[in-house]
Amino acid sequence: MKLNSNIIDQVIFKGDILKPCPGTRGYICCGYQILNIGTNCPLDCSYCILQAYFKEDRLKVFSNLEERIGEVVREIEGHPEKIYRIGTGEFTDSLALDPLTGWTSILLPIFSVRKNAVLELKTKSVCIEGLIKSPYRERLIVSWSLNSPFISEREEIRAPSLVERLKAARDCQKEGFTLGFHFDPLLIHRDWRSGYLKTIELLEKYINPAGIIWLSLGSFRFMPALKPIIRRRHPGSCILNGEFILALDGKMRYFKPLRIELYEFMRTHLESWHSDLGMYLCMESDDVWKKSMGWSPGDSEGLAGYLDSRVRKFFK
Amino acid sequence: MNISRYPVVTLGLDRIGEGYPFAMTFPLASESVKESINKVGLINPPIVREKAIEKRFEVISGARRIIALKALGFTETPCRIIPEGDTSDLDAVLLNLFDNLTTRSFNPVEKGMVLALLTSQISREEILKFFMPLLGLPRHEPSLDLHLIIAKELNEEIKIAVALGRMSLQAISELICLLQEDQANVYKTIHYIMLNNNYQIQFIDLLKDISIITETSISRLLLREDISDIINDKNLSNPKKAKKLMDYLRDLRNPTLAMAEKAFKETLRSIGLPEGDIIVAPQFFESPYYELRVRFRDMDQLGKKLDSIKSLKSIDRLLEPWKTEK
Predict the structure, then answer these.
(1) Quick count: other Cβ atoms within 10 Å of Cβ B194?
(2) Between chains, do B287 and A255 touch, taking CB under 8 Å as contact?
């Protein structure tokens, strides 16, 4: 990898290359595995937790990824009974740096041939050239984070517009990729209902829902320490205006009935578009699941099982 | 620099300027220093630097003593004079710093003054590496910036509150994000009601949020009739006033939660639980688990009470009180 050192630091990563999503107590987690490929994100969305995670705002990519990916392969091959849902989008955007890092050229050939794993590339970018050019399609999921147009324009200012993202998603779908979508963080803001409806309309316009493996909903949640950082770094932001309470895991979340209202609204309208979107809630409690989605996986194991079944359905 | 090579001489106080460019004492005026000089005289002579061209002297160390001597009507003082060429500004700052450090600790305003003096002389990296620990501060930029703002930007009244420990650094770090006018008005309220440190932080945070949500300046918010009525309520003690104000602001900030809490209390009152028994809602209604506390003296009474509670159909309304309110 040859990168411009003014933009990106290349570092040797010594930590765990594959780690389960930590989840939080009291809430149901999807059992996702995080593949560590770099830290920080060039998009700098106002709500991003990375602002609190990393003291330095420089982008870091792990130069020893190719050497260490073997550990991941051994882990996957060592547990053929298990399905590994792996993603790179936890500590950085999966695709925004791909033109510079060539991550897809390293990862796609490796994951595309594993029978008990899928690789999900979560992004807000439109950097899909590496994907499209590659011959690999199997066991790969390209997913986009979506929000209302208002939030997208105001709080995700360095990210491509919703239409650009959905056009990129459409192109990937045409090229045979399986898609995922994440409405996370859902934010209560002025006219949020009509805002999210507009985004759902855009989804309808650009995407064939039958090719969506899953679609997650997650309301805005944050560590209390993030609040002063957002106030300082994004003084015009509206994302802290909602009614937040200190939740069971020590994070701030919208007051429960507001979350239920958000999810129920989204579920109703998304289901009227397509009834089999693999919709799930990210880090929510059993009672919120039941009240907003009409069912609950019960616990993290149940949700993991549900998502694994989606993997089996989409990738034979 | 060996300070003992400069002998103690007598200098007219009128030849010493009043700018105190190296002062790191706050507040400068001190009754205790005056009292000490009055009782036992000047124990430790100040150190001054000669400014030959301007034909005057500036205080390197001992500003408080000079001020006290002047206030007490002295016309001259024993002191050590350092010729201008013998010491740089940085030497002067360090001399005063180490002179102070041997005898006392600094309050946050004084730490800010030291850091402000140092920033004009040396790099931030050096300050972070060597001087922050010397002042008992963590080696990180936000702490350096906070202390610089405390020293340079806060008004005198707030600085005094910080120096005397009436306002915590955490509260100050919230306060400094406000406009100067808002800072002053918020501080006045904090001081007037004597909010404790914990309340101060919450108070500023709530005001900031409400101000942004309602698009009203904090100073205007504090003038709102409902809020100023609480602040100026003569029938309430300060602790009660503080609690009422905080509760009111929290309700204003989170109206749906406030309505749910109110509905829960009203429903609880109306459902007719046996006397002495109570249902406790989870904090913020977040956990799905409610608590029932039953007072009983024997198994027979417990059974009767539980049967009676089970038959109360309206208990359901307690579990999602926000629906009751709607």
Answers:
(1) 13
(2) no
**Measured between alpha carbons, how far is B318 from A61 in angstroms, rounded to an integer?**
52
- Among B177, B255, B322, whose Cβ lies nearest the Cβ of A257? B322
CB proximity list for B102: less than 8 A, separation 6 or greater: none
ipTM: 0.91
Tell me which long-range contacts B245-252 makes (C-beta under 8 A, separation of at least 24): B245/B193, B245/B203, B246/B199, B246/B202, B246/B203, B246/B206, B249/B203, B249/B206, B249/B207, B249/B210, B250/B206, B252/B206, B252/B210
* A286 contacts in chain B (CB < 8 Å): 288
**Which 3 state secondary structure label does DSSP give B287?**
coil
Residue A26 with chain B: CB contacts under 8 Å: 287
CB A186 within 8 A of CB A220: yes
Phi/psi class of residue B94: alpha, beta or left (left: φ > 0; alpha: ψ in -120 to 50)? alpha
pLDDT in tens, B274-323: 888 999 999 999 999 999 999 999 999 999 999 999 888 888 889 999 98
Distance CA B48, CA B99 (A): 13
A250 to chain B: which residues are within 8 Å by CB? none
Nearest chain B residue (CA) to A259: B286
CA–CA separation, B148 vs B163, rounded Å? 14
Contact call for residues B128 and B145 (beta carbons, < 8 A): no
Distance, in Å, from the CA atom of B254 to the CA atom of B22, rounded to the nearest integer, reads 48
The predicted model scores a pTM of 0.87
Chain A residues in contact with B172 (beta carbon < 8 A): none
Across the A:B interface, residue pairs with CB atoms under 8 Å apart total 50
